[in-house]
Write a structure and sequence with these properties.
The protein contains twelve helices and 14 strands. The chain is an alpha+beta fold. A hairpin with a 1-residue loop joins β2 and β3. The chain is elongated and about 75 Å long. About 3% of the residues have low confidence. It binds isobutyryl-coenzyme A (CO6). Isobutyryl-coenzyme A (CO6) binds next to α8 and α9.
């Protein structure tokens, strides 16, 4: 019996297929009770309308196998908001509405990235939105499900808290004369490593640089990759400050660096220290 039941243990990492133009897998957990499990989740690129379906070759049965299968459908329904399609035809018909999709909020920044595959430059835009935009709340509920698929330490925010601002995939929490925390940042896997993270980080960072209520900008519990991205952008912002001149770098880390980076760029002491180490290493090489 045990051997037979082992066939009904599936790694949901392999079972889950997330479709967003391209197909990719994501870490999840072991699910019990299904053979040949496929969890299909498709999002329409613009408005993020969702198709969700669980498929399997066979499922354990309480009467014959004396065990119950995990209730995967309910687990995923807890994450994705209601209103998703379960039928492919309904989902495809929603694609027609996609042509009318306009990003929510106001345009903050436009930039281009050369795409090797297409052999041309593709233009990207960063928008800032808030809950006052009609339809944005529902859109955000669909959007934030991505956090669960791609960030291990993800959590959902309180949408009724008006202090949040939304930079597409980025949530910000401003406080008076206090550090400002980046909550979560996600560039979808097909677009990683193309410079979008750096563009988004710099745009949001610059947006808050002139704010009198923001002391400096930081993040809670940052991932290793996020720290690498942050180092890259902060070095870029700091390298032209007079306090980081090659002569000054040779003298060691000093108060002037901390003050200038904090006042001009809203960078905190720890991050300024990292920038100093990187620039000093570069100057020495
Ligand atoms: N290794 C080394 N260097 C890196 C890396 C990694 N993984 N990522 C960025 N960078 C540096 C590097 O110098 C890049 O320049 P190039 O060497 O020329 O490629 C530069 O940063 C720009 O990188 P890019 O803009 O292309 O980065 P990307 O668009 O991929 O965005 C990311 C980085 C971490 C946001 C993205 O990979 C991602 O969404 N990863 C999965 C989710 C994740 O880990 N999010 C961060 C969670 S922590 O949200 C968090 C706010 C805090 C708490």
């Amino acid at each position: 019996v045990e051997k037979k039941l082992a066939e009904y243990k599936c790694n949901t990492n392999e079972a889950i297929k997330l479709k967003l133009g391209k197909m990719f897998n994501n870490p999840f957990e072991i699910a019990f009770g299904y053979k040949g499990l496929k969890i299909l989740l498709c999002y329409i690129a613009g408005n993020l309308s969702t198709l969700f379906r669980v498929e399997y070759a066979s499922k354990v049965n309480e009467n014959f196998d004396c065990v119950e299968a995990d209730d995967l459908e309910s687990k995923i329904r807890e994450i994705i908001p209601p209103g998703f399609c379960t039928n492919t035809d309904d989902f495809v018909s929603l694609l027609e509405k996609e042509v009318n999709f306009k990003p929510f909020g106001t345009l903050l920044h436009t930039y281009s990235v050369h795409n090797e595959e297409a052999g041309e430059d593709i233009t990207y835009q960063i928008y800032k939105a808030d809950m006052a935009c009609p339809g944005f709340r529902e859109y955000h509920e669909r959007l934030q499900t991505f956090l669960m698929w791609f960030i291990e330490t993800a959590s959902f925010i309180d949408l009724d808290d008006e202090r949040w601002n939304y930079f597409l995939y980025n949530d910000i929490f401003p406080r008076k004369e206090k550090p400002l925390f980046f909550s979560q940042m996600l560039i979808l896997p097909p677009f990683q490593g193309e410079g979008h993270g750096a563009q988004l980080f710099e745009t949001v960072h610059r947006y808050y640089m002139s704010s009198p209520t923001v002391l400096d900008i930081t993040a809670e519990d940052p991932s290793e990759n996020y720290v690498k991205l942050r180092d890259f952008v902060l070095v870029k912002l700091c390298q032209d400050l007079p306090c980081f001149s090659p002569e000054n770098l040779k003298q060691g880390f000093n108060q002037e660096m901390m003050t200038e980076a904090q006042q001009k760029l809203k960078i905190n002491k720890q991050h300024t220290r990292r920038v100093y180490e990187i620039l000093r290493l570069r100057a020495t090489e």
